[in-house]
Write a structure and sequence with these properties.
Layout (H helix, E strand, L loop, with lengths): L3 E2 L1 E4 L15 H14 L3 E5 L5 H13 L4 E7 L2 H10 L6 E8 L2 H7 L4 H16 L5 E6 L6 H14 L3 E6 L6 H14 L7 E6 L6 H10 L4 E4 L13 H10 L5 E2 L7 H12 L16 E2 L2 H9 L18 E2 L7 H10 L6 H17 L5 H15 L1
Parallel strand pairs: 1-10, 2-3, 2-9, 3-4, 4-5, 5-6, 6-7, 7-8, 8-9, 11-12
Helix pairs in contact: 1-2, 1-10, 2-3, 5-6, 6-7, 7-8, 11-12, 13-14
The structure holds 3-methyl-2-oxobutanoic acid and zinc ion.
Pfam families: HCS_D2, HMGL-like
GO molecular function: 2-isopropylmalate synthase activity
InterPro entries: 2-IPM_HCS-like, AIPM/Hcit_synth_CS, Aldolase_TIM, LeuA/HCS_post-cat, PYR_CT
Length: 387
């Protein structure tokens, strides 16, 4: 079986930037867009041009800057939004308009006070209109996660007929189970006529902590694009984390799916986004959290010191982290202590280590973490004691 590419659609600058407190100015967006392009993402969703003059300007500037990736602008299903996106994307080498409408019963009833047939008509009109400006039009069926599959298939069919090149199936509320989301994608692959003319895209939110699992289930079942953000930023509990899906596909070659992302840039790009958005990354965040390659319990440390693979499934260098760390706490053992002493230039005998370890535990019980200064002080104290 031949390995197939999964397109990475980064929406850090659109869905990610919607997060309270994460707003960026144009120069900040440009530095992130430049890095995303270097990282190797396939699509950069640069913003929602109609939403504000500032966002329009950012999308326009990003369009001029980006060399390789497609640049995308979000719209609702109306001509004014589409006009603004087309204008903002005027300078993009590879522009994409991302237009769409809510398709679940609650969106149709409460947001649009409308009916299913009218929504299909509006979806088709929006795609058709967007195609008068660009060749690449992505259609989103907002709240597809809670839209019944038969109706969703009809909406997708109309969007393809109108000229959509990508069909985005968002689990907008993060409600789907991975199996259910995968089945939805499979159903669309098998039941939408003309589906060979478009690719299916996963856009999953993390309200129940399943965004990454749902996206992976989506691509296993035939989707060929994942929409995601650096550090999993996004509305409410966030979107699928880019670094997670990229590394899952890389660490599981048996899936026969790959991305074009340069994984060694993941950590530096995560740090850049966190710093510019003023949004710290939780320490236990998969792949890019400060503790993702830190070992602190004695049993784990002993294993990792003997062979990294005992407790690490990824070589930290693969994601741009210099090395794994052995953190000294009251749960650490002698082997970790000796290892850290060696790192600061002290080779200790087994006998000396016994004395040092007793003293170490006294310090470790008082402090959350024992650092190199503490280790030097321990050596000094024990040397004085035992002469
Ligand atoms: O979550 C969602 O449904 C979205 C769409 C606007 C694509 O972000
Ligand atoms: Zn979203």
């Amino acid at each position: 079986m031949k390995s197939e590419k999964i397109e990475i659609f980064d929406t850090t600058l659109r869905d990610g930037e919607q997060v309270p407190g994460c707003k960026l100015n144009t120069p900040q967006k440009l530095s992130i867009a430049e890095k995303l392009d270097e990282l190797g993402v396939d699509v950069i969703e640069a913003g929602f041009p109609i939403s504000s003059p500032g966002d329009f300007h950012s999308v326009s500037e990003i369009s001029k800057l980006v060399k390789n990736a497609k640049v995308c602008g979000l719209t609702r299903a109306n001509p004014k939004d589409i006009d603004a996106a087309a204008e903002a994307l005027r300078f993009a080498k590879r522009p994409r308009i991302h237009t769409g409408i809510g398709t679940s019963d609650s969106h149709i009833r409460f947001k649009f006070n409308s009916n299913r047939e009218d929504i299909i008509e509006r979806a088709a009109q929006a795609v058709k209109y967007a195609r008068t400006f660009v060749e690449d039009v992505e259609f989103y069926a907002e709240d597809a996660g809670r839209t019944d599959n038969d109706y969703l298939a009809r909406v997708c069919e109309a969007a393809i007929k109108a000229g959509a090149t990508v069909l985005n199936i968002p689990d907008t509320t993060g409600y789907c189970l991975p199996e259910e989301y995968g089945e939805k994608i499979k159903y669309l692959k098998e039941n939408v006529s003309g589906i060979h003319r478009a690719i299916l895209s996963c856009h999953c939110h993390n309200d129940l902590g399943m965004a990454t699992a749902n996206s992976i289930s989506g691509v296993i079942n035939g989707a060929r694009q994942i929409e995601c953000t650096i550090n999993g930023l996004g509305e409410r509990a966030g979107n699928t984390a880019l670094e997670e899906v990229v590394m899952i596909l890389k660490q599981h070659p048996g899936l026969q799916l790959y991305t074009g992302v340069k994984s060694r840039m993941l950590n530096p790009v995560s740090l850049l986004v966190s710093e510019l958005m003023g949004m710290p990354v939780q320490p236990n965040k998969a792949i890019v959290g400060a503790n993702a390659f830190a070992h602190s319990s004695g049993i784990h440390q002993d294993g990792v010191i003997k062979n990294r693979e005992t407790y690490e499934i990824i070589d930290p260098a693969e994601v741009g982290v210099n090395a794994s760390t052995i953190v000294l706490t009251a749960r650490s053992g002698r082997s970790a202590l000796a290892y850290r002493f060696r790192h600061i230039g002290f080779e200790v005998t087994k006998n000396e280590l016994d004395f040092l370890y007793e003293e170490f535990l006294q310090v470790a019980d008082r402090k959350k973490e024992v650092d190199n200064d503490d280790l030097s002080a321990i050596i000094e104290k024990v040397t004085r004691k035992i002469g």
